[in-house]
Amino acid sequence: MIKTDILIIGAGPTGLFTVFEAGLLKLKTHLIDALPQPGGQCSELYPKKPIYDIPGFPEIKAGDLVDNLMEQIKPFSPGFTLGERAETIEKLEDGSFIVTTNKGTQHHAPVIAIAGGLGSFEPKKPLIDNIADYEDNGVAYMIKDPEVYRDKKVVIAGGGDSALDWSIFLADVASEVTLVHRRNEFRGALDSVEKVGELAKLGKINLVTRAEVVGLLGEGHLNSVVINHADEGEFIRETDYFIPLFGLSPKLGPIADWGLEIEKNAIKVDNSYDYSTNIPGIYAIGDVNTYKGKLKLILSGFHEAAIMCQSAYQRIFPDKRYVMKYTTVGGIQGFDGTKK
Ligand code: FAD
């Protein structure tokens, strides 16, 4: 059981900055994110796009903003549970919560900050009848640790950047990489398309275009896929892993069933005070919340995180009085008490 003061669901920009604001108040934080990396939409949807409306940065790429946030929160050593979706919540008699992920990891905290943005990004799955039987047994929809595929046979499906980039990367890790795509043309960056073509010529990637994976075979663990080619028909290819990379779509998902007041797929909060929800102890900040005049911008999430942490502090320590100080006056102190 992972214990913390504020359990943050969502490691997008809002969730990451919450660590900083909580850290200033000496509150411990732990983040859960369904994606294998932090940064939310900035990392997943537009890492290379410049952003022009972050105060103090005339221009910054979304990926660099995430790197900076990670650097800024380092002194507070937050915990991370990545690649797992917060699934269920249980309120204990003392008012604290236990949140369990889809992989069964349990987290205990007196305060929950939902910074879930547009929701958890769910993989778009191919329509293969028995695919659910092989999930975690040879089928993966995102790559968390590429070392899992060292010296293994891998079949990747898809025509976008993820499918191309991972095929290139795994060509040096896996014993065999097959990339299957429905068309001859790829949607990804030209540079990556060319690289895949070069690796295919060198025999380091088996490129199968105008084809689809239509079946999965194997007792318990996957051992081969059935590929249907537009001209040649069906054939079987032996593989240890099948990784369909068809993109991710956001869904509010299980949080919608936690008894929170929901309006237009977002969580209603009290913006006259502290971004609390209808359940005492649960706050919602960033893109995931809604109130009159809400702006779905990164800076709104930062502001909401600062206010929410002050309220969380009072909830956790009702008898202590916190006097707000500027960071330049108080300095930033890590949990070990040393000034950074
Ligand atoms: P998100 O970034 O959405 O992060 C939420 C995280 O929560 C995700 O990683 C998700 O996986 C996770 N999550 C959700 N539910 C669960 C669950 N149940 N369990 C585990 N994890 C969960 N904003 C600007 O201010 N300036 C811009 O220039 C700008 N440009 C944009 C361009 C594009 C193309 C897009 C799509 C958005 C842009 N935005 C911009 C909006 C900005 O990205 C969002 O306002 C911001 O990402 C919100 O941050 P967040 O942390 O609240 O949510």
Low-confidence stretches: 334-340
Main sheet attributes: strand count, strand direction, barrel closure? 5 strands, parallel
Helix proportion range: 10-25%
What distance separates the N and C termini? 29 Å
Care to count the β-strands? Answer: 23
Structural class: alpha/beta
Features:
binds flavin-adenine dinucleotide; four-stranded mixed beta sheet; elongated; disordered C terminus; single chain; five-stranded parallel beta sheet
Can you tell me about this structure?
Its cofactor is FAD. Strands 6-3-2-10-22 form a five-stranded parallel beta sheet, with helices on one face. The chain has a four-stranded mixed beta sheet with strand order 1-9-8-7, with no helix packed on it. Strands 14-13-12-18 form a four-stranded parallel beta sheet, covered by helices on one side. α1 runs parallel beside α3. It is built from eight helices and 23 strands. The chain is of the alpha/beta class and 340 residues long. Flavin-adenine dinucleotide binds next to α1, β3, α2, β11 and α7.
Summarize the structure.
The chain has 340 residues and is an alpha/beta fold.
Task: Summarize the helices and strands and which ones pair or pack.
Elements: E1 2-3, E2 6-9, H1 13-24, E3 29-33, H2 40-44, E4 50-51, E5 60-61, H3 62-73, E6 79-82, E7 86-91, E8 97-101, E9 106-109, E10 111-114, E11 120-123, H4 131-134, E12 153-157, H5 161-170, E13 176-181, H6 190-201, E14 206-209, E15 211-217, E16 224-229, E17 233-238, E18 241-244, E19 248-251, E20 262-263, E21 266-268, E22 282-284, E23 289-290, H7 298-316, H8 327-330
Parallel strand pairs: 1-9, 2-3, 2-10, 3-6, 10-22, 12-13, 12-18, 13-14, 21-23
Antiparallel strand pairs: 4-5, 7-8, 8-9, 11-19, 15-16, 16-17, 20-21
The chain binds flavin-adenine dinucleotide.
InterPro entries: FAD/NAD-bd_sf, FAD/NAD-binding_dom, Fd--NADP_Rdtase_type_2, Ferredoxin-NADP_redctase_2
GO molecular function: ferredoxin-NADP+ reductase activity; flavin adenine dinucleotide binding; NADP binding
Catalytic activity: 2 reduced [2Fe-2S]-[ferredoxin] + NADP(+) + H(+) = 2 oxidized [2Fe-2S]-[ferredoxin] + NADPH
